[in-house]
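Most newcomers find our protein records easier to grasp once they have seen one. Each record describes a single protein and holds just a pair of labelled lines. A learned vocabulary of local backbone shapes supplies the integers on the structure line. Nothing more is needed to start thinking about how sequence determines fold. The record below serves as our worked example for the rest of this section.
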Amino acid sequence: MTDNYVLACIDGAALSTAVCDYAAWIASRVQAPVKLLHNLEHRPQAAVADLSGSIGLGSQEELLEELTRVEQERSRLLMQKGKLMLKAAEERVHADGVEQVECWQRHGSLQESLIENEQDIRVLVMGVRGEEHHAGQLGAHLESVIRGLHRPVLVVNSAFSAPKNVMLAYNGTEASQKALDMVAASPLFKDIPCKLVYVGDDKRAAEILADGSRRLTAAGIAHESVQLQGKIDEALISYQAKEGIDLTVMGAYSHHRIRDVLLGSFTAKMLSKTQKPLLLLR
């Protein structure tokens, strides 16, 4: 398979079908293959290991051996379940019109699997929640993956709907500049109207919007510049709903983790509150 594939994370969660559909949509627009990843996390063996210290020798050895066999069987079944999920996902992506699809099953840390292969990833697509999370919860791996991966990440939070418009949250920072560059240069956004949005009432707003607008115009992207007031996340989500925005593109997290913790991460707030997919860039 060629380099620069669209990578979709498949875990059996309710959003897996939507993840497949969005990955196929991206792949079709940018003419890239799709790679489907099912990652098997290493489960700690503490439960069995601890018993080995508390169970005496003799008759209890059989129990310890049985527990070990159960854990091995569980791992085998999880692997088989993953292969079935990948097969179903592959069929879905093929049905969406993508011919080049590859399945990939890995063991170990999801973040490590992705970072090891990030040079070949064009866009990563993953659900906002994992298989073990409920509505309103963010997936356990989401923040670490977004922080660790220097590739665009599309976070899916609802059933697929082909985007007919896009909102670019822009404030002139390095991350938002990358987001603007992607909208301007990628065939993914060709012929999709864009709302260039700045939130704030400071004096630099007009200058920042003018700069972004100039670059989008040069790239031939039809757009409208909009300045909003209020708390950034609330203003963006309200505008998103009001205008029927299908996809939001924005920079993700700051490089200052402590500041994010103290002030509350804007990215995490957007991930928790929005009902439409977010394309995040760092």
The mean pLDDT is 87. The first helix runs from residue 16 to 30. The longest strand covers residues 34-40.
